[in-house]
Design a protein that fits this description.
Elements (H helix, E strand, L loop, with lengths): L1 H17 L19 E3 L1 H11 L1 H24 L2 E10 L2 E2 L2 E2 L8 E14 L1 H68 L5 H36 L7 E3 L12 H11 L1 H22 L4 E12 L13 E10 L7 H67 L5 H36 L3
Parallel strand pairs: 1-6
Antiparallel strand pairs: 2-5, 3-4, 5-7, 7-8
Helix pairs in contact: 1-4, 1-8, 2-4, 3-4, 4-5, 4-7, 4-9, 6-8, 7-8, 8-9
């Protein structure tokens, strides 16, 4: 009887040690601790990802290219100035010029030319289209940035989940080791059969393997995230566990309003429709007349000199205007108009689909976030019940009221409850991130 009391006392002490809930993650090291790994918050990880993401860099370059297209299209509408420096030699035969349009054997042209378009509807439409294309490129840059947010959040909380599950596996391994110690002591005291100790040892070995797998999963998550954040994926770092500070979910009408006002996908689709509409205008304008002018000032002479031999000034000016009227091009311009109209129709179809897709995604993502949010409290309660169940089952086992199988089952249930709770917290965070790809930050 004294031996049983001693075993019960030992079991109570072990239970108190085993079920004291430690923090999910260890406290951060001091800022100047030697060899401390880099510790990142979600905002810091986002900043590093923006600086290293090839998708963001590519989207920014495309926006800059679109900006330069706008500058070039605008410049094509404005008058331009150039110089002409030319020497023409014409063959003579029997004292006469073979190429009769030239004025002499030696002709020198040194002129300043000013060219401008008085009426160029195609160039005007191209300039306006380039402005809209620039807006499309900017919207696609924002789409890439929001897509990066979802990627960073997914990788960030994969690491948080990996760290939590590794801590859970260590805790479960410790509990299995304590239970193995209890069974071995009871076996030596003749209280339980050897099979109980064997079962407890099998459970302990399984928990060791679980810890190794959790460590592997954490390392793989760290490597995958390091590729996004750092030039060298071997950079050692950790992340701050902020799962317990999740922001509340706004009401659905608020989410709808934010998505309608802030969706870069809708803006890009609308701008694409406008771009194709202006492309149709450009194609039609190519069938219209265009009017331009040229002004020339300089020298057009058979002598390379400012004055002729008679003392007259060789410098002069001339002006000319050109009216270009398209008449026949074998249907090429009409084909381009039809092609542009088909692209416009496709852009309108894409806009309609994008609007429907936005509403469907918004509804689905919100339902996911709402379900994940509502299940967090239930998962936490299940975790508390599982911990209490294992504690009571272990006490009953030491009193000889239950078998070892019930203890193992209670341990397994607690392991699953811990991981399910952490998965539920991560699920809610990821659902919020998916919503923010449609609405922006909230």
């Amino acid at each position: 009887m004294p031996r049983n009391l001693a075993i019960v006392g030992l079991s109570l002490a072990l239970c108190q040690c085993a079920f004291a809930q430690p923090p999910s993650t260890p406290p951060p090291p001091p800022p100047n601790a030697p060899n401390a790994p880099l510790r990142l918050t979600l905002d810091q990880a986002m900043q590093r990802a923006r600086a290293n993401s090839p998708q963001i860099l590519s989207a920014n370059i495309n926006a800059l290219l679109a900006r330069e297209d706008t500058v070039q299209a605008k410049a094509a509408l404005l008058p331009n100035v150039s110089t002409l420096n030319q020497y023409i030699y014409t063959q003579q035969r029997d004292g006469a010029l073979v190429f009769v349009s030239n004025d002499g054997t030696h002709v020198y042209n040194n002129q300043i030319l000013v060219h401008g378009d008085l009426y160029a509807p195609q160039k005007l439409a191209d300039w306006r289209r380039s402005q809209v294309a620039e807006a499309v490129a900017k919207a696609r840059t924002e789409i890439a940035q929001r897509g990066l947010v979802a990627t960073v959040v997914s990788n960030y909380y994969a690491m948080v989940s990996g760290e939590r599950k590794f801590a859970n596996s260590q805790m479960s391994q410790k509990e299995a080791a304590q239970f193995l110690d209890i069974t071995q002591k009871q076996e030596r005291g003749g209280e339980v059969a050897h099979s109980d100790a064997v079962k407890a040892e099998i459970q302990f070995v399984q928990r060791q393997r679980d810890t190794q797998e959790a460590q592997l999963a954490l390392d793989k998550a760290r490597i995958g995230f390091a590729v996004v954040l750092f030039p060298d994926y071997r950079q050692d770092f950790t992340v701050v566990d902020d799962l317990d500070t999740a922001r509340p979910l706004p009401l659905y009408p608020e989410i709808q309003t934010m998505a309608g006002n802030n969706s870069p996908d809708i803006r890009a689709a609308q701008a694409t429709v406008e771009e194709q509409r202006l492309d149709v205008r450009s194609a039609r304008a190519a069938m219209l007349p265009s009017l331009s002018f040229d002004y020339l000032y300089g020298m057009n002479s058979t002598e390379l000199a400012l004055h002729t031999r008679d003392g007259q000034l060789n410098l002069g000016s001339s002006a000319q205007a050109q009216l270009n009227i398209p008449i026949w091009n074998w249907g090429g311009l009409r084909s381009r108009v039809k092609q542009s109209e088909l692209r416009l129709q496709q852009a309108r179809n894409d806009l309609t689909f994008t609007q429907r897709q936005l509403l469907a995604n918004l509804d689905g993502f919100y339902r996911e976030a709402d379900a994940a949010n509502s299940q967090v409290a239930s998962l936490r309660h299940s975790l508390e019940l599982a911990a209490d169940s294992l504690k009571l089952t272990l006490l009953r086992y030491t009193a000889g009221e239950v078998t070892v199988l019930e203890v193992v089952d209670a341990q397994t249930t607690l392991v699953q409850a811990r991981n399910a709770f952490d998965d539920g917290m991560v699920r809610y965070r990821l659902a919020i991130a998916n919503l923010q790809t449609l609405t922006g930050a909230f």
